[in-house]
């Protein structure tokens, strides 16, 4: 079909294939482009440049395209596609950020709803994941994809932490069994937890770590005894202890957040921009392993990340042109480093 645009409209960068045009009337073609620019700008402005409306704006303007003459139509559609593509690049950044923020908020609410200080957070991780996913937006695609990517990444990150904890318990138990085997001691055990996918995976990894550690250390500590077939029955009997896993344990009550440190005495709370309220820390020194104590310097982010749009532009971070820059608008140099402050992006800094 000569002179027609084949276009897939999604909330991703639009793919446009332009078939060789037959138009030879430059003035009519340019008139079509000018019409498209006027109609697009008017519609986009009317929708307050809302990126959630970009697909709808494109569809409505496209419906209003002139059908003839052919050169007028080609100029109109070419310019409309160009304007859409340019704006979509900006909107993708905004859309992804909105999706991430929405997912983070949904996850925080789900965590609050399912939280139980008497057990490990691993025991209600699956419930949090399921509840957060029920808040997944259906449209537009970029918002839904960004939301799902964030929640999946968060779930996998927390699941890895739970498994690491359980593997550590398994390795400790395996080491104890190796010592017992070599010293002809008595078996030890603990109760088995069996709740939810996270706990099942965690217990399986803990049991396997116990078996692997028992096997390797018994060979290392007493190879002659281990190789003696007369001890096989005793060795196999001891391996049964590995199935009695303990699962993830309740957290240390001294492991709190920066916000919790100053509850009840807000006047002492550090006065710093973007105070990281949810950052984990230790209430008292040397009581939380490697977790740092809740201090003002730890709970306040680097000041260098708190800038404005003018500074970001001077660093080459604002590429939109032309752009009516809101120079004094405050923003964050690096994403996630300034608490609730938004990142310095084109869509945020340009009026």
Describe the structure in your own words.
Residues 1-21 form the signal peptide. Keywords: Signal. The protein is mainly alpha-helical and 351 residues long. Among the domains are: 5-93, no CATH class; 121-248. It is 53% helix and 6% strand. It contains 12 helices and 6 strands. It has helices spanning 26-46, 54-63, 70-114, 125-133, 141-183, 196-221, 223-227, 232-239, 258-261, 296-299, 309-314, 346-349, and strands spanning 5-8, 15-18, 255-257, 280-282, 306-308, 330-332. A two-stranded antiparallel ribbon has the order 1-2. It has a two-stranded antiparallel ribbon with strand order 3-4. It has a two-stranded antiparallel ribbon with strand order 5-6. The longest helix has 45 residues, at 70-114. The protein is elongated and about 100 Å long.
How is the topology of this model organized?
Layout: E1 5-8, E2 15-18, H1 26-46, H2 54-63, H3 70-114, H4 125-133, H5 141-183, H6 196-221, H7 223-227, H8 232-239, E3 255-257, H9 258-261, E4 280-282, H10 296-299, E5 306-308, H11 309-314, E6 330-332, H12 346-349
Keywords: Signal
Signal peptide: 1-21
């Amino acid at each position: 079909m000569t002179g027609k645009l084949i276009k897939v409209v999604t909330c991703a960068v639009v793919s446009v294939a332009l078939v060789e045009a037959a138009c030879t009337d430059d003035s009519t073609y340019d008139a079509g482009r000018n019409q498209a620019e006027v109609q697009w700008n008017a519609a986009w402005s009317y929708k307050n440049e809302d990126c959630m409306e970009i697909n709808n704006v494109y569809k409505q303007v496209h419906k209003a395209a002139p059908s003839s003459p052919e050169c007028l139509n080609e100029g109109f559609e070419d310019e409309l596609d160009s304007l859409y593509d340019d704006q979509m690049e900006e909107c993708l950044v905004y859309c992804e950020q909105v999706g991430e923020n929405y997912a983070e908020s949904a996850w925080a609410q789900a965590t609050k709803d399912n939280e139980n200080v008497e057990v490990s957070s691993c025991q209600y991780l699956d419930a949090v994941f399921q509840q957060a996913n029920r808040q997944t937006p259906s449209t537009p695609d970029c918002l839904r994809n960004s939301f799902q990517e964030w929640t999946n990444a968060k779930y996998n990150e927390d699941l890895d932490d739970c498994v690491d904890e359980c593997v550590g318990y398994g390795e400790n138990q395996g080491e104890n069994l190796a010592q017992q085997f070599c010293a002809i001691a008595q078996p030890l055990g603990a109760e088995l937890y069996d709740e939810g996918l996270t706990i099942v995976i965690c217990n399986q990894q803990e049991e396997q770590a116990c078996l692997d550690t028992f096997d390797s250390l018994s060979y290392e500590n007493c190879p002659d005894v281990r190789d003696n077939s007369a001890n096989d029955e005793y060795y196999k009997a001891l391996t049964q202890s590995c199935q009695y896993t303990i699962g993830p344990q309740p957290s240390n009550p001294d492991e709190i957040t920066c916000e919790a440190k100053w509850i009840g005495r807000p006047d002492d709370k550090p006065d710093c921009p973007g105070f990281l309220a949810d950052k984990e820390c230790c209430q008292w020194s040397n009581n939380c392993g490697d977790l740092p104590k809740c201090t003002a310097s730890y709970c306040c982010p680097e000041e260098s990340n708190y800038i404005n749009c003018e500074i970001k532009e001077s660093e080459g971070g604002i590429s939109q042109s032309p752009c009516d820059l809101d120079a004094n608008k405050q923003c964050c140099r690096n994403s996630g480093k300034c608490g609730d402050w938004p990142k310095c992006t084109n869509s945020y800094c340009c009026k």
